[in-house]
Amino acid sequence: MTESLTTSTTTPAGSAIAPRRRRADDVAGLGTARAGVFVAPALILIGVFLLFPAVWTIWLGMTDYRLTGLQAASPEFVGLDNYLDALSDPAFWNSLWLTLIFVLFSGIIGQTLIGFGLAWSVRNLRGWAKALIEGLVLAAWVIPASVASFLWLALLDRRSGTVNAMLGTEGNAWLIDHPMEAIIVFNIWVGTAFSMQLFSSALSAVPPSQIESAKMVGASGWQQLRDVIVPNIKGHILTNTLLITLWTFNTFTPYLVTAGGPNGKTEILSVYIYKTAIPGGQLGLGAAISLIMLLINLVIALGYVRVSRGRTKR
Amino acid sequence: MTTTDHVQKVAADANVRHFLSRIAFTIILTIIGLLFALPMVWLVLAPFDATPTLSLEWPDWTLQNFARLAENPYALRSIGNSLLLGIGTMLIVVVLGALAAYAMSRIRIPGRDGILYGLLLLSSIVTGTAAMVPTFQIITQLGLINSYVGVLLVLAGGILPTVIFILKDFMDSIPKSYEESARLYGAGPFRILRDVVVPIARPGLAFIAIWTIVQVWGNFLVPFILLRSPDLQPAAVLMYTFYTESGQADLRLISTFALLFSAPVLLIYFIVNRRYGFRFHGGIKS
């Protein structure tokens, strides 16, 4: 659902040629009242199933609502108790810390750098090599999450996994000994396609004349990258970083690989909320943590808005 | 670029370092390509192996596994369920999205652009994971747990802002002169929408329809928390059930099911991506 945040900055073909309005808009004689009727069903659906849940979280987080038992029938208002409970629970801080590591290494560092590296590497390739590499990276992104997770379970399997067979490390239980590293690599594998595509289109928009002049004065590949390419695509780098941060922060897919285990070592915030609220039944506490997550999302999204506004003004 | 090109270049520049770096570059790129391919090889080979294991091995070719899959009571039904959810969500968002986008494109409502961006922002903040708890609680209160109505409404609500945003772009690019002439001939707004705007906007609507189905097809979290009975599970959830809840994982079943479930989106994706390019990426992955 966040996709069009990007499309709006990459200027898709359709909107670029859209005629600016010059004459009366209401050519079909719609009228404001009828327009309201047209817009209302969509807005009501969004209001009830997107806006309301967000607002509802605030109230829910201040109750002792549970899935079963007395508190399920008549939940009581407990004020900020859930927040105090969460903030004084080492498991919450552990989860937040794991999330930070996960987002930093798999999103900001892994996906961005590998995505950029791939886009940079294949930019001058033609034909099958480029199509093959881009196709492989894209396929990893498109394969449904529950299938991708199983493919990685097979790959990292203790007894017959391919990784152990290739490295000659028979019996090495990657998902137990290195669970965080495993889901970081898994998430890089899944998500790099986005950064690669975004940087590919950004690189193709860098004026060739600038690169040519840099080459003429004898700039090395690295110098071209630093002095010509990066300044040109600064906006895309920021956009990419913010979107990747948002998505990586919100992904639930690692749960399908490690289920938060072993011993909560991969319990990133999304998994922690799920386990607390749904199998754990503590909906009130879960809602309180959800609100914290929503606020973090809000901060990232506002950062995105600021960045894209700044860019259109320039 | 071929190796001979490189050699000539190197000879001309007398720059051996450049040559070596090209070789290193090619090797690194090949390795990265292989790393991306590695997990997928199993998906392609195992379904056709008479005795698949978790390791990669040259298959003992057979198509028997697919016949077995057809006998499993849940497998094919779950694919049907995924289709049902995909098409259902698609119908809701295309109809409601087209109506809203058209009105927003043609009537100047104060703060319209603000509303559009606000909706889009809302949908990226209130993600499936962040809103999982309140959504679950609301759907429980409404008595819609374990019903497709709940899943459809939640999915549609999450996707609609993006749909309206993209469709408004399409509607803006439709020349207004068609509508003006239709109106001169006495057509009312509904008729204009149905007979003039929708046919012209068809590529945009088709794009949104396919995009929505792909998004819903792979969505795990919403049906996972809102549906209970195995009969209702879409393929995304059943796949997970297959490898977590069965004592001894039946790899013949899992591998064929995984391929059958992944193939449609892979096909659609590569066909549509070729036609529409970058726009098709992203979406509600979580």
Q: What are its keywords?
A:
heterodimer, A: 314 residues, mainly alpha, B: 286 residues
Notes on the structure:
- The complex is a heterodimer of chains A (314) and B (286).
- Helix content of chain A is 74%, strand content 0%.
- Chain A is an all-alpha fold.
- The radius of gyration of chain A is 24 Å and the shape is globular.
- Chain A has 17 helices and no strands.
- Chain B is mostly helical.
- Chain B has helices at residues 3-13, 16-45, 64-71, 75-106, 112-125, 132-141, 148-172, 176-184, 189-200, 202-218, 221-226, 235-245, 251-276.
- The longest helix of chain B is centred in the N-terminal third of the chain and has 32 residues, at 75-106.
- Chain B is globular.
- The interface between A and B is large, with 112 and 107 residues.
Q: What fraction of residues of chain A sit in β-strands?
A: under 5%
Oligomer: heterodimer
**How many whole angstroms does the radius of gyration of chain A measure?**
24 Å
Count, helices of chain B: 13
Biggest beta-sheet profile of chain A: none
Class per helix and strand makeup of chain A: mainly alpha
Order of helical and strand elements of chain B: HHHHHHHHHHHHH
Distance between the termini of chain A: 27 Å
Write the layout of secondary structure elements.
The complex is a heterodimer of chains A (314) and B (286).
Chain A: H1 3-10, H2 13-16, H3 31-60, H4 70-73, H5 81-87, H6 90-122, H7 128-142, H8 145-155, H9 162-167, H10 174-177, H11 179-204, H12 208-216, H13 221-232, H14 234-250, H15 254-258, H16 269-277, H17 283-313
Chain B: H1 3-13, H2 16-45, H3 64-71, H4 75-106, H5 112-125, H6 132-141, H7 148-172, H8 176-184, H9 189-200, H10 202-218, H11 221-226, H12 235-245, H13 251-276
Helix pairs in contact in B: 1-2, 3-13, 4-7, 4-10, 5-7, 7-10, 8-9, 10-13, 12-13
